[in-house]
Amino acid sequence: MRKFLLVGRTGVGKSSFINATFGSYIAETSEYEACTKIVEHYAYKSPLGDVSLIDTPGLAEDDEACDEAYLSLVRAKVNLAQIYATIYVTRLNETRFSPDEKRTLRLLTNRLGAHIWNRSILVLTFAASVPEHQQEIFAEKRSQQIFDFLQIVTREQDRHKKFQGFEQSWLVDNIVENWTSDGSPILSMLTD
After folding, report:
1. What residue ranges define each of the domains in the chain, with the CATH number in brackets?
2. Which neighbouring-strand residues pair with 2?
3. Which residues of 142-153 are buried (b: 16+ CB within 10 A; e: fewer)?
4. Is there a contact between 100 and 60 (Cβ–Cβ < 8 Å)?
5. What is the separation, in whole angstroms, between the first and last Cα of the chain?
6. pLDDT tens digits for 16-70?
């Protein structure tokens, strides 16, 4: 079974991503407040292969002490050596690379280890909220900002290693169905 660890800030759509992947409402979501307060494993058996998505509490919701508690929970409940890939979830429709996102990337790297980025996927959510003719530009800009920052924080942990880049980058929308005509089912990409 391939296990994927979903990480990111609060409100970026990690739980909604799980629901979109499995095609049913299994992970609680809310537009108005953070829902995920625990580490939750969601397993799915399919003809394409068995997949487990591990939902984690969103970071940058409160203060650094809250983030530290959430990351301690992740370390206690997840065997990181068994993770097939880390999925970093962030919003496509953000125009600025915020201090909260930088703090989140730094905390994830420092507390879970730079190795979590060795095999990683970038998921850019809320893609339908960006005009179609700008989606590629937004995706390139957001991906580059995150890539550049992860190179810095991984090198801080080990001067001889630096972030090599995400294996894949996906545009998804957790709210709008059929927002693109050339999309692929998420589950097929996870089992490929």
Report:
1. 2-191 (3.40.50.300)
2. 51
3. bbebbeebbeeb
4. yes
5. 13
6. 888 888 877 777 765 545 555 789 989 888 777 889 999 998 898 778 888 999 9
